[in-house]
Amino acid sequence: MPSSFALETGAGLATHELPGYARMLDAYHRSRAAELRAIIATLPLGPHSRVLDVACGDGCYSNWLAERARQVIGVDLCAAYLDRAVRPGTAAVDANQISFGRADATLLPFIDGSFDLVWCAQSFFSLPGPLASLREMVRVTQPAGHIAILENDTLHQILLPWPAELELAVRWAQFQALEAEYGVGAVDKFYVGRNLCGLFRECGIKRYEMHTFPIERRAPLSTDEELFLCLYFADLRERAWPYLDAAAQTAFDRLFDPCSASYLLRRPDFHLTHLETLAIGQRPGAIRNARGSVNFADPSGGKEP
After folding, report:
1. Which is nearest to 153 in space by CA: 187, 119, 118, 199?
2. 130 contacts 192 by C-beta, under 8 angstroms
3. Is 124:149 a contact under the CB 8 Å cutoff?
4. Three-state SS at 75
């Protein structure tokens, strides 16, 4: 049976249903809010910026983006998530600073050059066509505007103090499970974080940069942090289990079963590093300088990370 974390609207999930990973993502946002908002603080935004949040989910990032922009529009395919995102009573929503609508990331309902910045967070791997979605994001970005993607790498996003031989066995099993579920050709999208610069180049973006943000945690973990990790490893177990031998299964449960005396997440020496990758590309076009004259972005001035 496919993991409930794999179901998306348009891929087996009804629009009125929240995806199975909703609870995990909520815990992630709550436990990492300070670091995620610090990442948003690095974006090229100003008080007059107009921003599009693609695959906005429950609107968490939309609200954080609205702290630095004039207007934010969030779009998602999941109607259940959009119902959450509206949140009447939120100051930014009531002031019409944020609005939400249902839209396909590969067919955005906006004219060319509508936004100063187009943002997509931790959703690229789940989009049916990452490259087609990025092309649409570029299209609706104004000349000299920016496209920003926050993503991670499925195999290497969380670094833990667990035995190397178990880690290798589990990650290989995870890879096999993804191939079985999505097909050999489609599995690359789960490692899209490492390939974002290549996707930018395919879309004609030659000015881009990549930044890696480590999020570190030490014992004791907060309730939300432990909940997020608990759900993450439950999903990992479900995927990997059929491809692990008995010894690896036993070792995994010894470390990640909350009832185990060796439960890793509550060890006093526990620590982890979670890696998030931010890729920012600039659409070629005119740039107005402080004197009001127009410069043009150098299409050959690509910035390799």
Report:
1. 187
2. yes
3. yes
4. strand
Sign of CA dihedral 29, 30, 36, 41: positive
What is the pLDDT averaged over residues 184-190? 72
Average pLDDT over residues 213-232: 96
- How many angstroms separate the CA atoms of 62 and 47, rounded? 15
Query: For residues 213 and 183, what is the distance between their CA atoms, to the nearest angstrom?
Result: 30
In DSSP terms, 75 is beta-bridged to 54, 101
Number of other residues whose CB lies within 10 A of the CB of residue 182: 16
- Three-state secondary-structure class, residue 128: coil
Is there a contact between 75 and 54 (Cβ–Cβ < 8 Å)? Answer: yes
Instruction: Give the C-alpha separation, 147 to 51, whole Å.
Output: 10
Query: Around Cβ 61, how many Cβ atoms within 10 Å?
Result: 26
Q: Which two tokens stand for residue 129?
A: 């066509």
Question: 116 in helix, strand or coil?
Answer: strand
CA distance 213 to 195: 16
Q: How confident is the model at residue 294 (pLDDT cuts 50, 70, 90)?
A: very low
Tell me the residue type at 19.
P
Is the pLDDT at 101 greater than 70? The verdict is yes
Ordered DSSP codes for 193-237: GGGHHHHHHHTT--EEEEEEEEEEEESSPPHHHHHHHHHHHHHHH
**Helix 22-31, helix 223-240: angle, nearest 10:** 140
pLDDT tens by residue, 161-184 = 999 999 999 999 998 998 888 777
Distance CA 43, CA 94 (A): 25
How many Å apart are CA 15 and CA 135, to the nearest integer? Answer: 24
